[in-house]
């Protein structure tokens, strides 16, 4: 598999782009003409820079408004092409992209276009160059790859071929079976991009909202299956126009791009096992059986406060690490670890972020296979010296530089609590407050990071993603999207903050980066849990009484049920399949959220309609802006 990416896809000058693209593992790079024109150096300098970073220049693009022109525009178009051929030869690339004309003076006509391309092919052949023709989705006369292929076919010239671009084909919902009959040697390069499904002008959609395969909603896998069926084995190249990417990290976006191509072709190989494709071998996507533990990094003072809170919530101190200053709290199948070590990664995380949920452990089918797949997809593997009595638990770096550990049932990893922890006899033998498991974990990040982490999770784990939802904070919008395991035992909400004034934005600003902000704990009886919590002195987040009047009327609730919700500060939601109940603790630290939930029936959501009201209540308790921490 040969991979490439267009320079327009990432931010920076050409030197920065080449360095990031090479470091991500790409084989080649497309030179977008505007990037070249803005460069203060010769074409040979650009070619040398690319070569020095190990990159092949796969394509020079785009050449616009060429075919079907009347005179004198036709003659000028050939003169322009000859000058671009000069540049290509100095760059050291042999392929130029010509996109279908949008010129208002173009005349159209397949035979006329074929004649123009035949002459262009003759001129290119004299220089040892090739020309690829691409159908723009908004082309004046040619906006369908089937018409572009017919022009190339009639040209009958070995130096003229087709460029297939997934966006242009999929945006127009063109039938994909037509690709399978195109000879592989006439496809000169394949450009790939995804996009969210948005109804808008095609040109504007393309120029601002493209993203990596797997980050959007277009059937890019099916497109690539059709291409692979031709026997094509040339470059797969990303051409991404995206406003956020242009202002983002070139390194991170390049890594995402390479990951997206590897995952895309892994999917194609599994769907079309008979096809002979050179794809990096890796295990299949990994199933997740839930969250085994959440681990906090803290100092002794905060650890004491957090421990007191957990005990009030019905947790017991279940174990202490055999060699480290680490304590395990447990209730039901929920394991919460507090790490107050003065060295190692946990301490480094505390120094940077303060007290935070810096790590989570996932129950997976095969821990070693999970790490192998993650590594093949460009994830950063985490290693730390193993101390006395410790297991070597496989892990990778995740959101905000935090850790994701993997435990399976087939190795000693399943015995981690018995091996690494000395049991502690709890002071009381109470049964807790009825919390049973972790329902979901919420991770907060800057909004522009969300596509990257969505791709990260869905490419490594056997999960699906839900449509994006706008969460209304009194100070702005927060974008939210959910990653779910196929059996719903693993649920992860990703929340993207656009404003530092939102609760999510405040969390990022105060903890110096993205991370776990929200822990939702499940109960089978929310009212019994609320009663036990209240008996232990727990004071829930106070929800406005106006909310309950609206809920009673909106859902037609029995007044007695509404009164029970109101008296316990429990939020309520309902969908076609079931009901959802939410109870919140006041925020801990700089906005960490603990929530108790009960799902009845097959309720599929996360209480999004309730978010504005609980956020308003949470923000009333926040430290006023400018007031120092104590």
UniProtKB/TrEMBL annotation:
<keyword id="KW-0456">Lyase</keyword>
<comment type="similarity">
    <text>Belongs to the bacterial two-domain DSD family.</text>
</comment>
<dbReference type="InterPro" id="IPR043700">
    <property type="entry name" value="DSD"/>
</dbReference>
<dbReference type="InterPro" id="IPR029068">
    <property type="entry name" value="Glyas_Bleomycin-R_OHBP_Dase"/>
</dbReference>
<feature type="binding site">
    <location>
        <position position="165"/>
    </location>
    <ligand>
        <name>a divalent metal cation</name>
    </ligand>
</feature>
<dbReference type="InterPro" id="IPR037523">
    <property type="entry name" value="VOC_core"/>
</dbReference>
<feature type="domain" description="VOC">
    <location>
        <begin position="287"/>
        <end position="409"/>
    </location>
</feature>
<feature type="binding site">
    <location>
        <position position="518"/>
    </location>
    <ligand>
        <name>Mg(2+)</name>
    </ligand>
</feature>
<protein>
    <recommendedName>
        <fullName>3-dehydroshikimate dehydratase</fullName>
        <ecNumber>4.2.1.118</ecNumber>
    </recommendedName>
</protein>
<dbReference type="InterPro" id="IPR013022">
    <property type="entry name" value="Xyl_isomerase-like_TIM-brl"/>
</dbReference>
<dbReference type="GO" id="GO:0003868">
    <property type="term" value="F:4-hydroxyphenylpyruvate dioxygenase activity"/>
</dbReference>
<keyword id="KW-0479">Metal-binding</keyword>
<comment type="function">
    <text>Catalyzes the conversion of 3-dehydroshikimate to protocatechuate (3,4-dihydroxybenzoate), a common intermediate of quinate and shikimate degradation pathways.</text>
</comment>
<keyword id="KW-0223">Dioxygenase</keyword>
<dbReference type="InterPro" id="IPR041736">
    <property type="entry name" value="4OHPhenylPyrv_dOase_N"/>
</dbReference>
<feature type="domain" description="VOC">
    <location>
        <begin position="437"/>
        <end position="586"/>
    </location>
</feature>
<comment type="pathway">
    <text>Aromatic compound metabolism; 3,4-dihydroxybenzoate biosynthesis.</text>
</comment>
<feature type="binding site">
    <location>
        <position position="239"/>
    </location>
    <ligand>
        <name>a divalent metal cation</name>
    </ligand>
</feature>
<feature type="binding site">
    <location>
        <position position="595"/>
    </location>
    <ligand>
        <name>Mg(2+)</name>
    </ligand>
</feature>
<feature type="binding site">
    <location>
        <position position="440"/>
    </location>
    <ligand>
        <name>Mg(2+)</name>
    </ligand>
</feature>
<dbReference type="Pfam" id="PF14696">
    <property type="entry name" value="Glyoxalase_5"/>
</dbReference>
<dbReference type="Pfam" id="PF01261">
    <property type="entry name" value="AP_endonuc_2"/>
</dbReference>
<dbReference type="InterPro" id="IPR050312">
    <property type="entry name" value="IolE/XylAMocC-like"/>
</dbReference>
<feature type="binding site">
    <location>
        <position position="134"/>
    </location>
    <ligand>
        <name>a divalent metal cation</name>
    </ligand>
</feature>
<keyword id="KW-0560">Oxidoreductase</keyword>
<feature type="binding site">
    <location>
        <position position="191"/>
    </location>
    <ligand>
        <name>a divalent metal cation</name>
    </ligand>
</feature>
<dbReference type="InterPro" id="IPR036237">
    <property type="entry name" value="Xyl_isomerase-like_sf"/>
</dbReference>
């Amino acid at each position: 598999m040969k991979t490439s990416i267009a320079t327009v896809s990432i931010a920076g000058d050409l030197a920065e782009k080449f360095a990031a693209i090479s470091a991500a593992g790409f084989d080649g790079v497309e030179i977008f003409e505007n990037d070249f024109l803005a460069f203060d150096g010769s074409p040979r300098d650009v070619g040398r820079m690319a070569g020095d970073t190990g990159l092949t220049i796969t394509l020079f693009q785009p050449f616009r408004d060429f075919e079907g022109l009347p005179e004198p525009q036709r003659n000028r178009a050939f003169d322009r092409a000859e000058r671009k051929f000069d540049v290509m030869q100095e760059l050291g690339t042999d392929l130029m992209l010509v996109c279908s004309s949008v010129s208002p003076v173009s005349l159209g006509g397949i035979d006329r276009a074929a004649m123009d391309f035949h002459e262009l092919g003759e001129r290119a052949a004299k220089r040892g160059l090739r020309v690829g023709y691409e159908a723009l989705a908004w082309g004046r006369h040619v906006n369908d790859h089937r018409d572009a292929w017919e022009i190339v076919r009639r040209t009958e010239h070995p130096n003229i071929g087709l460029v297939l671009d997934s966006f242009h084909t999929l945006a127009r919902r063109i039938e994909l079976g037509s690709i399978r009959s195109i000879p592989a040697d006439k496809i000169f390069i394949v450009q790939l991009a995804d996009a969210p499904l948005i109804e808008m002008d095609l040109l504007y959609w393309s120029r601002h909202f493209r993203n990596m395969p797997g980050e959007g909603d277009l059937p890019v896998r099916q497109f690539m299956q059709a291409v692979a069926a031709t026997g094509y084995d040339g470059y797969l190249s990303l051409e991404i126009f995206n406003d956020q990417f242009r202002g983002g990290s070139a390194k991170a976006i390049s890594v995402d791009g390479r990951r997206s191509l590897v995952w895309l072709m892994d999917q194609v190989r599994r769907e079309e096992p008979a096809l002979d494709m050179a794809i990096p071998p890796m295990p299949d996507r990994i199933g997740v059986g839930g969250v085994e533990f959440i681990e906090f990094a803290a100092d002794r003072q905060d650890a004491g406060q957090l421990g007191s809170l957990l005990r009030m919530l019905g947790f017991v101190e279940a174990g202490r690490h055999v060699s480290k200053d680490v304590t395990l709290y447990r209730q039901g199948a929920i394991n919460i670890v507090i790490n107050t070590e003065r060295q190692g990664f946990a301490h480094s995380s505390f120094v940077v972020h303060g007290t935070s949920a810096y790590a989570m452990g996932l129950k997976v089918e095969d821990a070693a296979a999970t790490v192998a797949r993650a590594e093949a997809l460009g994830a950063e593997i985490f290693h730390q010296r193993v101390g006395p009595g410790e297991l070597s638990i496989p892990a990778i770096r995740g959101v905000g530089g935090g850790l994701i550990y993997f435990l399976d049932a087939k190795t000693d990893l399943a015995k981690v609590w018995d091996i690494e922890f000395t049991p502690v006899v709890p002071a009381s033998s109470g049964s807790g407050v009825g919390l049973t498991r972790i329902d979901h974990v919420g991770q907060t990040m800057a909004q522009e990071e969300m596509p990257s982490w969505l791709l990260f999770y869905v490419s490594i784990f056997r999960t699906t993603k839900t449509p994006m939802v706008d969460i209304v904070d009194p100070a702005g919008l927060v974008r939210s999207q959910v990653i779910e395991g196929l059996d719903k035992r693993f649920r992860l909400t990703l929340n993207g903050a656009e404003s530092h004034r939102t609760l999510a934005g405040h969390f990022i600003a105060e903890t110096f980066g993205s991370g776990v902000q929200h822990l939702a704990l499940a109960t089978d009886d929310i009212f019994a849990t609320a009663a036990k919590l209240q008996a232990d002195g727990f004071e829930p987040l106070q929800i406005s009484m106006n909310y309950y009047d609206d809920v009673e009327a909106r859902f037609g609730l029995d007044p007695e049920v509404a009164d029970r919700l109101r008296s316990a500060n429990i939020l309520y939601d309902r969908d076609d399949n079931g009901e959802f109940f939410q109870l919140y603790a006041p925020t801990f630290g700089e906005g960490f959220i603990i929530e108790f939930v009960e799902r009845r029936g097959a309720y599929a959501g996360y209480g999004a309609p309730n978010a504005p009201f609980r956020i308003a209540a949470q923000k009333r308790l926040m430290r006023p802006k400018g007031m120092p921490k104590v």
